[in-house]
Amino acid sequence: MKIGIVGAGMVGSAAGYAIALKGSASQIVFVDYNSDLARAQAQDIAHAVPFASSTVVTAGDYDMLKGAGIVILAAGVGQKPGESRLQLLARNADVFRQIIGKVLSAAPDAVLIVATNPVDIMTQIATRLSGLDPARVVGSGTILDTARFRYLIGVHLGIAPQSVHAYVLGEHGDSEVLAWSSARAGALSVKEFAAQMKSPLTENVKAKIDDGVRNAAYTIINGKGATWYGIGAGLERLVRAISRDEQTVQSVSIVTPKVEGVHDVALSIPRIVGATGVVADLFPELDDAEHDALGASARLLKSTLDALDY
Ligand code: ADP
User: Fold this and answer.
1) Does the pLDDT at position 87 exceed 80?
2) CA gap 51, 176 in Å, rounded
3) Fewest 10 Å CB contacts: which of 9, 153, 274, 282?
4) Whole-angstrom Cα distance, residue 144 to residue 15?
5) Which tops the pLDDT comparison, 86 or 46?
């Protein structure tokens, strides 16, 4: 499948690199208003391909997106140190106004994957601007937070993150909800698994993992200015789920008719992802505090949206 990536910065190029290395697309086309950057990223990644796959990597104008089955929207302005994801909003909404129409005239049948932050709001904006079925405008949402959550639980339990089934819900940002009550490792609750491994999941351990997930982006931004490898790999995972019609469960963000009493809000819950985008929504079993936190996250996103004129 041909994949378009609009925005050839750190996140877009990391996604392209991951897709090329895994060979999960036959072709990748980078588009960026900085056309020199798009060309340079395409060449650099193309030179990695002989070591890994047969993906053809090029760069060009929006016309070159013709025939793309998926277009990743990674264009935007970067997050500055100390800046919250929501503060990025106004600047990035303008970018989407400039690009969505051009993407859809070239690739009217593509599934859109939204990666630009604040991703939930940008997903809502992309859905409205595109006029597409919300299921076809998939925000990367908490896919990365979920990966961080699984990684840290895995480290604590001494097992591979792939054996951990745990999700981060709600906003990709400060109000996100770590769904501890439904977190499992193998066939056990993480609590029971930890007890059997003699490394109990104390409140202190949970608080450390919560902090590690919730503040990972801030820590990484302080150290290297931005984050890109984790989200790049997450975007590749979504591309694979869509291009291969996998029907895998991923925590992604789409405009959802109703979550915790809040209507038409884009946020993450586990969803089945396949060729057409999101195929079904799953509402996990949560305890009361998690329900409340998810409701608060939904209301926060909704109030931001309501304040925004787009
Ligand atoms: P991130 O870390 O989120 O990838 P970057 O600043 O590295 O942030 O990348 C964002 C990319 O989006 C930049 O390469 C920038 O040139 C591109 N971009 C910004 N605005 C537009 C636009 N209106 N059209 C196309 N590309 C854009």
Assistant:
1) no
2) 38
3) 282
4) 13
5) 46
The tokens of 209 are what?
């993992």
pTM score, two decimals? Answer: 0.96
Establish whether 47 is a catalytic residue.
no
pLDDT digits (tens, 9 = 90+) for 233-246: 999 999 999 999 99
Locate the ligand 1 atom nearest the alpha carbon of residue 226 and give its number. Answer: 2
Other beta carbons within 10 Å of 190: 23
49 is in an annotated binding site: no
Which stretches of the chain are DSSP H helices?
10-22, 35-46, 89-106, 119-130, 143-157, 190-196, 203-214, 216-224, 229-243, 288-307
Q: State the distance from the centre of ligand 1 to the C-alpha of 74, rounded, in angstroms.
A: 7
C-alpha span between 182 and 286 (Å, rounded): 7
Rounded to the nearest angstrom, the distance between the alpha carbon of 37 and the centre of ligand 1 is 10
Nearest-CA residue for atom 23 of ligand 1? 95
Binned at pLDDT 50, 70 and 90, residue 83 comes out as confident
How far away, in angstroms, is 120 Cα from ligand 1 center?
Answer: 18
DSSP structural state of residue 175: T
ipTM of the complex: 0.97
